[in-house]
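RECORD TYPE: inverse folding
INPUT: structure tokens
STRUCTURE:
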């Protein structure tokens, strides 16, 4: 028996065509005397019906793409707003940290020069924390998953840590 994996108006990636489309109709194939369909196909308005194996949900694709690109790193950019002798107290004089959050070396997090000059040690620490965020998120996810699988066998202190990790993950995933 088959169950529908996608629903009407869901955005899916159609692998054979290599494009995004909306599921226009869920088309179950019934056999006489059965309570459930034997197969389910999806009409995406591309000229034929597609099987579930030929489609991929948007969330799954975005999640996999996001994980592949989560190699955040701290690089250094040249400090253009101050001469080198005026920033000798900075951890790396003449530069400031830039957290690269994408595949290219130009996207990411930067701090205004005036803010960096107020407390460069704090900004350096923040840059390292931001760069480590994807690994920390993966760790929190693993802890929560392990806690769910462990059930009652887990020590109370560790269960409390798992609850804190879940709260942090919920705050990260919250919209708005």
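DESIGNED SEQUENCE:
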């Amino acid at each position: 028996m088959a169950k529908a994996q996608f629903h009407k108006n869901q955005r899916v990636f159609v692998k054979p065509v290599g494009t995004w489309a909306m599921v226009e109709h869920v088309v179950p194939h019934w056999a006489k005397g059965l309570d459930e369909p034997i197969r389910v196909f999806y009409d995406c308005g591309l000229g034929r019906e597609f099987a579930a194996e030929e489609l991929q949900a948007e969330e799954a694709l975005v999640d996999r793409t996001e994980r592949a690109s989560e190699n955040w790193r701290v690089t250094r950019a040249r400090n253009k707003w101050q001469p080198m002798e005026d920033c000798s107290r900075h951890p790396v004089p003449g530069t400031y940290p830039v957290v690269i959050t994408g595949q290219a070396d130009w996207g990411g997090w930067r701090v205004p020069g005036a803010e960096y000059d107020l407390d460069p040690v704090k900004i350096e620490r923040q840059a390292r924390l931001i760069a480590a965020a994807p690994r920390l998120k993966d760790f929190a996810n693993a802890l929560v998953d392990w806690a769910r699988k462990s059930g009652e066998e887990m020590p109370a202190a560790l269960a409390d840590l798992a609850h804190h990790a879940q709260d942090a993950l919920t705050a990260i995933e919250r919209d708005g």
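NOTES: The chain has a mean pLDDT of 83.
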